[in-house]
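Feature request, filed as a ticket because there's no other form

It would be nice if the structure record came with a short human-readable summary line next to the tokens. Right now we just get the raw output. Example of a typical job, pasted below so the devs can see what we mean:
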Amino acid sequence: SAGLEPMTTGQSIVGPYRIENYHCEAYGVLTNKCPGGPDRGVGTVQGVFVIERIMDMIAQALNMDPAEVRDRNFIQPHELPYETVAGRLYDSGDYPGSLEKLLQLSEYQDLRLAQQRARANGEHLGIGISCFVEHTSTGSQDYHKRGVYGLPAFDSATIQVDPRGNITAAVSAQSTGQNHESVFANLVARELGVPYATVKIIEGDTDATPFGSGTGVSRSAVSTGGAIRLAAQDIKQKVLELARFFLENEEGELDIAGGEVFVKADPARRVSFARVAASAYDASREVSLPENIERGLRVTRSFDPPHQVFGNGAHLAVVRVTPETGVVKLEKYFVVEDCGTIMDHVVVEGQVVGAVAMGIGNALLEELRYDEGGQLLTGSLMDYLVPTSMDIPEIQTLHTESPSPFTEGGVKGVGEAGTVGAYTAVANAVADALLPFSVELTEPPVGPERVWNMIKMAQGNR
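Raw output as currently delivered:
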């Protein structure tokens, strides 16, 4: 983590904005505190916090709406792919479009009017926006740019069709909550034109799966999904070639759908996928394959992402702060998320909502605290608070798609995006609520103790 965070934070600070001049120096410091490791948005969370707090500070200094400041500085869709001053190549997206959709989803102008009424009544209602670009699925080329060699950055998939037409896909990534067994099975079924029920995914057993870098860096949809697509394309090509023996050596274009291979110009002429599969193992009573055709239907392919690909999003949080206690109540939350081509809408929704909940915990509650001797004080869930369902409001989401030109199928990663956006949206909302106190918020988490102390300090400085 000490190596990842300084580099990633430095590259993330520029965000989705057109920034021409930038210099960053970052340091990793070795201490005797408890070791920490990277977890869901490492480095990016901190970088987004810096630039998004700056955007709000600019808005306050210029007496402008925070949304307008962002909109004036976005990289525009027609400029993509866009190489940032921090050395990243953003692939695709519509950053102003994401913010515009967020403002519509949240009924932003109505929220600002409600805030004016609340302040007139002495209440402290805050609205926070966070716009971000998040890197996903780092490949070997990007590691090499950093001077990192010897670190595998590809994933693999082995697809095998048995003589009955049943399909197994063994993959190098292991699901950690992304529902690979369903998402990848659907992907195989779509690519091969066969029923979902005929596909089985194998993962987690190194004796049964091909080698790859595994799950991490929001890479599974891109790298493992890319390997699956390539392997499925090879399988499909061979099945189509074998099907011609059943279709009187048909020379026209063939395709597969519903578990049957058919002539596109004459769909009535067709043969089942299972019958064709049997022929690949000399198990067909209808055709006999020439000796020059290799038996079996088994392919292993790998995919190494040629570039990092970048999801983007815009979050808005509404909070209410009680100054006497410092308690922050999160009342509303809105998300617009763009992760390229969506492979499974239900899974993407779950990934975003779960990550937002985690980001809310990071922003409001979670903190590693030490005593003067370096002893960890928050070493259990009795002391290290995490949010419960009582702390999380309904999260309203809207998903958009900007396919990447650098990946198979245009997909991007999404597993960390919710955390990246939530951390700062909540903090900005708290800062907005505390504007009447002239509080300068530069460090989360914004739990009761810190909020109360910031208010008292600001009052003492008046």
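Something like this underneath would help us a lot:
The mean pLDDT is 93.
The chain is about 35% helix and 20% strand.
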